[in-house]
Design brief:
Elements lengths: L1 E6 L5 E6 L5 E6 L10 H6 L4 E7 L14 H14 L5 E6 L1 H12 L4 E7 L4 E2 L17 E2 L2 H9 L7 H4 L2 E3 L5 E3 L3 H10 L2 E2 L1 H4 L6 E6 L7 H10 L3 E6 L6 H4 L1 H13 L17
Parallel strand pairs: 3-4, 3-5, 5-6, 6-12, 12-13
Antiparallel strand pairs: 1-2, 2-4, 7-11, 8-10, 9-10
Helix pairs in contact: 2-3
């Protein structure tokens, strides 16, 4: 697992984690508050099948902050990375907010995307379909003396398990435990994902896998069923016992679903869509 950097056309300095190994390249896009390293467990489960290359998206992890966090920004960043790393056409895995970027990338740049793996997000991110599409985080603590103190501060704000957030916490030069992201930026990221994105979801033709956690708070079962039914070439897999963070809650089951999907002959997909291992 190596963190590396590359420049995007906008001047953004993008950090990405290449988990290495053999297998089909998969570009992974984390959700809000995340970073590329969150996919470490999934990468271990998929060793020899998939080589995950995971971005720290703008404002997250060790990638630069920016004033703008629109859908167009995230899509442009992902497209630039695919082109710079010569991955196209590539399978794109997106969790939550990153899943919206994944299917928008496929709709707007079909030549770059061979297949989609969408983890626990749908084509609608708004009320009433989603009860709480935005977590109100303005004014939350940026740092604390220790990681345990930082976790306690989030628990006081209604986050019973802060482990996902803490994957983006590091020991700073002042000796305190500090988040790599800015809470105001995270509000902007969340708000930019609020909307009706059906046109984007239906706007591509590559094979797609939708993974829904059984106890998901972000992808209701009825919406997931409709999502798969209305887009040809889409399969839906419910992951038992998992919540919104399927890659953390059930990495083995998620890996099995991805392996089955990638082994499907439909993933050949026609001219320009043959999946390749690195160097293949």
């Amino acid at each position: 697992m190596r963190e590396q950097w590359l420049p995007a056309p906008s001047g953004l300095r993008v950090c990405y984690t290449d988990f290495g190994g053999s297998g089909i390249p998969v570009l992974a896009l984390h959700g809000t508050f995340g970073r590329g390293r969150i996919f470490a467990g999934l990468a271990r489960e998929l060793a020899g099948v998939v080589r995950i290359i995971a971005l720290d998206q703008r404002g997250h992890g060790r990638t630069d902050r920016r004033e703008s966090y629109t859908c167009d920004d995230f899509v442009a960043d992902a497209a630039a990375v695919v082109e710079r790393l010569r991955l196209a056409p590539v399978v794109v895995l997106g969790h939550s907010r990153g899943g919206i970027t994944a299917y928008q990338l496929a709709a707007r740049h079909p030549e770059l995307v061979a297949g989609l793996i969408i983890e626990d997000v749908g084509p609608v991110m708004r009320q009433p379909e989603i009860a709480d599409p935005v977590l109100p985080v303005r004014g939350w603590p940026a740092a604390a003396p220790t990681e345990a103190d930082l976790a306690a501060a989030l628990q006081a704000r209604g986050i019973p398990d802060a482990s996902y957030f803490l994957q983006s916490a590091v020991l700073a030069a002042d000796g305190r435990c500090r988040f790599l992201f800015d809470w105001e930026d995270m509000m902007a990221v969340q708000l930019s994902g609020v909307g009706d994105w059906w046109a984007d979801w239906l706007g591509s033709a590559c094979p797609a896998l939708v993974l829904r956690g059984e106890h998901s708070s972000m992808l209701p079962a009825r919406l997931a069923t409709r999502m798969a039914a209305q887009r040809p070439g889409t399969r839906l897999v419910d992951i038992a016992g998992a919540g919104h963070w399927v890659h953390d809650d059930a990495p083995r089951a998620m890996a099995a679903a991805i392996s089955d999907f990638l082994a499907d002959p439909a993933m050949g997909g026609g001219p320009g869509r043959v999946l390749r291992s690195p160097g293949g």
